[in-house]
Amino acid sequence: MDLRGRAVRSVDSLRVLLMLFHTVAQITAEQEVENLSGLSTNPEKDIFVVRENGTTCLMAEFAAKFIVPYDVWASNYVDLITEQADIALTRGAEVKGRCGPSESELQVFWVDRAYALKMLFVKESHNTSKGPEATWRLSKVQFVYDSSEKTHFKDAVSAGKHTANSHHLSALVTPAGKSYECQAQQTISLASSDPQKTVTMILSAVHIQPFDIISDFVFSEEHKCPVDEREQLEETLPLILGLILGLIIVVTLAIYHIHHKMTANQVQIPRDRSQYKHMG
């Protein structure tokens, strides 16, 4: 019994050590992050990089703004009216992150941690008619905000920390091995713990890759969002139509010139027999 007890205690100790090692490894991974927003030429865009084992495993460039409704007392101090706070993700934010084969996470904190953004990405495989295909997507967004912070909130009634979460989110869907790029604005609705309030997250100038980065600090091939593809088509379509029209005009003029030259070289036979004597 004593030997068995020792063996059980040894196994339990080993489990504890493994759990501690796993926790330390996760903490170490979270610390390997960089905020490179100063390199961006767009003052509203932030650049975040997560590195594990000395290599880049997650890169994210985007501009983010949050529209947060909150209640204040009306002038009669009886009724409530709803105001709106516009909170932009600022440069110099604190960043954390972690990477995994099928799940990656980015966390950003700013204004003395009055605001925190968490973005969760998942990688999945699906069976299609062409065979198994892997994609990744943004599966969850969480935004924590403090309505007692005086820069953006003015005398909020329910001042304090609130959490806004996405619901059944599937955004930025991208084929595995590619990065997601979208210049157009995209909105995500978040349900707030502040009763009957919905926070709107606005993303723009997005370029993200949370999996399968091959080269350090370099995005893989871009997968553009449908809005950008339509805008690109709208921009190039007039040029294409202009080139086609120009080609039609050139071909028409060339055919006319050749036809005119051929008919000019032909000897015209007079219809009046009396004109035959003048020939030759």
Describe the structure.
With 280 residues, this protein is of the alpha+beta class. It has two helices and 14 strands; from the N terminus they run H-E-E-E-E-E-E-E-E-E-E-E-E-E-E-H. Strands 1, 2, 3, 4, 5, 6, 7, 8, 9, 10, 11, 12, 13 and 14 form a 14-stranded mixed beta sheet that branches. Strand 12 (186-192) and strand 13 (198-209) form a beta hairpin. The longest helix has 40 residues, at 226-265. The chain is extended. Residues 20-30 have low confidence and may be disordered. The chain crosses the membrane at residues 237-256.
* Count of strand segments: 14
| Estimated structural class | alpha+beta
Uncertain stretches of 5 or more adjacent residues: 20-30
Q: N-to-C SSE series?
A: HEEEEEEEEEEEEEEH
Question: Count of DSSP helices?
Answer: 2
Distance between the termini: 135 Å
Shape: extended
Q: Tell me the Rg in angstroms.
A: 33 Å
Beta-strand fraction estimate = 35-45%
Q: How can the largest sheet be summarized?
A: 14 strands, mixed
Q: How much helix, percentage-wise, in residues?
A: 25-40%
Mean pLDDT: 83
GO cellular component, one term: growth cone membrane
Protein name: Lysosome-associated membrane glycoprotein 5
Organism: Prolemur simus
Domain Lysosome-associated membrane glycoprotein 2-like luminal: 44-213
